[in-house]
Amino acid sequence: MTKHDESRRAFLVGTVAGAGAVAAGQGLVREAEAQTPDHHGGAHESGDKLGAFLNQDDAAAIEAFTERLMPGAPGKPGARDAGVLNYIDLALAGAYADLQDFYRRGCVGLEAHCQGAHKKSFVQLSAAEQDDVIRAMEQNKAAGFTWPTAQAFFNTLRTHTIEGMFADPVYGGNKDFAGWRLVGFPGAQPAFTEADMKSKEAFTRLPMAGLQAKARS
Questions:
Q1: Is-contact 67 3, C-beta < 8 A?
Q2: Mean per-residue pLDDT for 137-161?
Q3: Do 122 and 114 form a contact (C-beta atoms < 8 A)?
Q4: Secondary-structure percent of the chain, ordered helix, strand, coil, rounded to 5
Q5: pTM of whole model > 0.90?
Q6: Alpha-carbon gap, residue 106 to 148, rounded angstroms
Q7: Is residue 86 within a helix (H) or strand (E), and if so which, with residue range?
Q8: Which of 59, 67, 122, 156 is least surrounded by CB atoms within 10 angstroms?
Q9: CA gap 113, 137 in Å, rounded
């Protein structure tokens, strides 16, 4: 992992403020319980399947984009490991359905910019080229976008990447509690020992449990 990747990971992890980011949106609960498989997501487990909302091309672009926002490394899960794409896909088919056209047009703008600047789609670019595209979008300097603006699409993808990394797994992301393990969030615990309460170290002891396990009980 490059220093650039490390700084990006550190920035996103640093934006997770307590339970606010972990809880995500309450509006996702009903849709996630109805649509998310028992093993915490899987709409995109097979490359031959379409997701709940996204087509294959848009799904591939968004997965690659979110992985650059939250890159994985040995022992450090990234967006792909945590199932962020699955989270976004399920959300767009449910509680975030009002953002479907936003995402469709945003993906069109991303493709137009990449073709104009690099003659390739986003998924075909090198990591450095993808970072250049993301940087241009963040600064609202990426050509090819009309609505949403490049910056608006970037901001939304960054927000949804954070949600997919750190929200309860019932929403389709945070696969195997990857995000919670990363920041030391304990999930549901039957009890905390006195040593646990006094410790300043990240909490890593199992079991971790989320809303889905609570619903089953």
A1: no
A2: 96
A3: yes
A4: 60, 0, 40
A5: no
A6: 6
A7: helix 84-93
A8: 156
A9: 10
Of 189, 184, 162, which Cα lies nearest the Cα of 82? 162
Q: Tell me phi and psi for residue 76, to 5 degrees.
A: -130, 105
Would the pLDDT of 118 be above 70? yes
- Both tokens assigned to 126: 């090198």
Is 131 in contact with 68 (CB distance < 8 Å)?
yes
| CA–CA distance, 70 with 77 (Å, rounded to integer) | 8
**Cβ count near 40 (within 10 Å):** 21
58: nearest Cα among 102, 117, 3, 5: 102
Euclidean distance between CA atoms 69 and 115, whole angstroms? 21
User: What is the torsional sign of CA 47, 6, 16, 187?
Assistant: positive
- Per-residue pLDDT band for 56 (boundaries 50, 70, 90) equals very high
Encoded tokens for 69? 């926002």
Dump the DSSP string for 46-58. Answer: STTS--SS--HHH
